[in-house]
From TrEMBL, chain A:
GO terms for cellular component: RNA polymerase I complex; RNA polymerase III complex. Residues 12-82 form the DNA-directed RNA polymerase RBP11-like dimerisation domain. It comes from Handroanthus impetiginosus. This is DNA-directed RNA polymerases I and III subunit RPAC2. Gene3D superfamilies: RNA polymerase, RBP11-like subunit. It is found in: Nucleus. The keyword Transferase applies. The lineage of its organism: Eukaryota, Viridiplantae, Streptophyta, Embryophyta, Tracheophyta.
TrEMBL record, chain B:
GO terms for cellular component: RNA polymerase I complex; RNA polymerase III complex. One of its GO terms (molecular function) is DNA-directed RNA polymerase activity. HAMAP family: RNApol_arch_Rpo3 (MF_00320). This is DNA-directed RNA polymerases I and III subunit RPAC1. Keywords: DNA-directed RNA polymerase, Nucleotidyltransferase, Nucleus, Transcription, Transferase. It comes from Handroanthus impetiginosus. GO terms for biological process: DNA-templated transcription. Residues 84-378 form the DNA-directed RNA polymerase RpoA/D/Rpb3-type domain. Pfam families: RNA_pol_A_bac, RNA_pol_L. It is found in: Nucleus.
Amino acid sequence: MEHGSFQDQSQATFSLTDEDHTLANSLRYTLNQDPRVTFCGYSIPHPSDARVNIRVQTTVDPAREVLKDSCQDLMLICQHVRGTFDQAFTEFKSKKGLESMSIEP
Amino acid sequence: MISEEEQKTSKIPVWDLPDVPKGKLPPHLELQRTRVLCTFDAPTHTENIRYSGAYASMGVDNSLRLEDFRNNFKVEVIKLTEDDMEFDMIGIDAAIANAFRRILIAELPTMAIEKVFIANNTSVVQDEVLAHRLGLIPLKVDPRLFNYMSENDEPNERNTIVFKLHVRCERGSPRIKVKSNELKWLPNGSEFIRSTEKSTADSTSKTKTYTSFSCGQDSLPEFSDNPIAPKHDDIIIAKLGPGQEIELEAHAVKGMGKTHAKWSPVATAWYRMLPEVVLLQEIEDERAEELVKKCPVNVFDIEDIGKGRKRATVARPRSCTLCRECIRGDDWDKLVALRRVKDHFIFTIESTGALPPEVLFTEAVKILEDKCERVITELS
């Protein structure tokens, strides 16, 4: 859900239900690293509500597009983490497999 | 790396300072950006500088470039056993590392006993305490093969696992321990007959139990050669005295750690930043021996540099607990610097046994991806 004005698309607050620090803090990180963003932050208005508000203010671009791009960035990061992790894991496994084998001359 | 000469801060007029090459941060800022400095009173520079324009005045772009991330990100497995895993994750921000940790603890589903139907319990353990103890028993079953059971769902073979526990301590025999291996899997569902008002009238219809399985779980290919059981079979559930008996049925369902910790797939998952110990000056002879003796976890070693002289070296920085004993008293903090590397995480996952730790981590990353995707679809 987006709360913004119709005149100025460059600043908006997005209210995400069923999310918490896990996503909001990661998104704040990727948003902050986007040069188009002038301000971003998040808050959890009440600890009993499963809801987090993310505030995005940009230079000119629509805040919604910038947030979408940040999500995309975060997804790409995750995909890379997964790929690298799998690779490191299989490498470790194969190395350990070699070590456990006793090679008699 | 920051060399030792740059560490020393002597007073130079500002116009005598050398020009900082564009596109690179001066060493002291680079140190503050990449390290947490652990001084003897408090850690400093703990925050991460994330704003893309933070170093704009120095011609340094701090924005996220995926290409750079891809080149710098590294994973190194340190230790791997059946249930435990330790690995280094290098080149990632704490925000994302913490997201993985939080998802591992609270948002990965597992199966755990949720409903307990107690037919008889004459033990000293009260029903509710017994039910709670049963709930906390880790089950060795892949939760990805099951669905969540919502409020109005009938328990069926795709969302419920049924266990039976029937133990009796005979009169005249010594007390017995009821252990988790007494939990017997019932692949055909509940055996307790549900009493309804007209249960006696129509004997033609199938007797109704507390579950409605359409087929036995042991006939499903994923469980046929891999029966469902508790992960450990020596967990004490209760103790029975002579003449006491427990008869119950336990129904396990899929759930998440944020509802109740019994559904958490990890005993715990945590990370720490890599400790970095730097000797700012050469520490020799008696002082070296003093330094080695100061450290309770044996971070330092002594090496011979010839002519009977000895020098301290940092041999095992990973085992440093940052107790700061080595920088206590008489200017030791000018000789030794304790730091933490901000983007190097030593990540440890202890699985409870439902899934191996490496699968847990990949699943956690997938969940974060799904969250992003949800936001993207909602916005477009």
